[in-house]
């Protein structure tokens, strides 16, 4: 049976372009019926007083919910600490994850309380990569540690605490971005690790988190040529299976 437009829409989380929807975005959301949306800094009035940006944001959320005719709408954000904090003050500016690795439950509960107040139900965190390469320009202090054991332990606590407060988490970046030398936002990193080495280190946190009920996993825009020489992980059928 052929897929309908709404069947296809369920496979997408889209990003509004600003603090309010454009006419084109309203049309797209109404007809595509996506699984939900992801909010970025541009969706908040960054320089406005608290009451003003909050009111504008709530109007945006209400309109999105009115357009998506589904009981559950994914309202997501990238909120891991450090540079990945999108809403303006007074939302707490938590530092990078490594700075609060010993206070996971306390900090994560505070993160969850603030996100829940913004109607967020999916947080694209934690970083489940292992900080194994000191020259890595994009992971570094975003990771909870430099060993598979400590990253696994911290990420489990993070997800457990988020879930206890009504928010889903999303471990990233599968199958591992911690040992790269380049930033995948600007160029394609190449990580020449064989499958057995990935299983010994990079995959350990992800395997445990998935087996523990992680709702969703974010893939890495990284090429693993010894596994799939033609596609980065995000597009690799071999890796995603």
Q: What do these coordinates show?
A:
The chain has helices at residues 5-9, 23-32, 50-67, 104-117, 148-164, 195-200, 203-211, 237-240, and strands at residues 13-14, 36-39, 74-77, 122-123, 168-169, 172-174, 218-219. The protein is built from eight helices and seven strands. With 241 residues, it is an alpha/beta fold. α4 crosses α5 and α5 packs parallel to α7. The strands form two sheets. The protein has a five-stranded parallel β-sheet with strand order 1-2-3-4-5, covered by helices on one side. Strands 6-7 form a two-stranded parallel ribbon. It has one domain (5-240): Glycoside hydrolase, family 3, N-terminal domain (TIM Barrel). The two termini are 24 Å apart. The protein is globular, with a radius of gyration of 18 Å.
Instruction: Please state the structural category.
Output: alpha/beta
CATH architecture: Alpha-Beta Barrel
How many structural domains does the protein architecture include? 1
- Biggest pleated-sheet summary: 5 strands, parallel
Low-confidence stretches: none
How many beta strands in the DSSP annotation?
7
CATH class: Alpha Beta
- CATH fold-level label: TIM Barrel
Order of helices and strands: HEHEHEHEHEEHHEH
| Overall spatial form | globular
Q: Rounded to an integer, what's the Rg over CA atoms?
A: 18 Å
- Percentage of helical residues? 25-40%
């Amino acid at each position: 049976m052929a897929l309908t437009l709404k069947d296809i829409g369920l496979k997408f989380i889209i990003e509004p372009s600003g603090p309010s929807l454009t006419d084109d975005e309203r049309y797209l959301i109404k007809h595509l019926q996506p699984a939900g949306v992801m909010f970025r800094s541009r969706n908040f009035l960054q320089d406005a007083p608290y009451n003003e940006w909050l009111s504008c944001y709530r109007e945006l959320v209400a309109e999105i919910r009115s357009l998506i005719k589904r009981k559950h709408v994914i309202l997501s954000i990238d909120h891991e600490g450090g540079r990945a904090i999108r809403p303006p003050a007074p939302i707490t500016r938590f530092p990078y994850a490594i700075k609060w690795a010993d206070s996971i439950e306390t900090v994560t509960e505070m993160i969850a309380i603030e996100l829940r107040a913004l109607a967020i139900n999916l947080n694209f965190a934690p970083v489940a990569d292992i900080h194994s390469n000191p020259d890595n320009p994009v992971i570094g202090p975003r990771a909870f540690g430099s060993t598979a054991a400590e990253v696994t332990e911290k990420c489990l606590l993070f997800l457990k605490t988020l879930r206890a407060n009504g928010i889903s988490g999303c471990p990233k970046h599968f199958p591992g971005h911690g040992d790269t030398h380049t930033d995948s936002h600007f160029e394609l990193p190449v990580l020449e690790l064989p499958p057995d080495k990935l299983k010994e280190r990079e995959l350990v946190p992800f395997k445990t988190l998935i087996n523990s009920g992680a709702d969703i996993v974010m893939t890495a825009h990284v090429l693993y040529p010894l596994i799939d020489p033609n596609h980065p992980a995000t597009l690799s059928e071999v890796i995603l299976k």
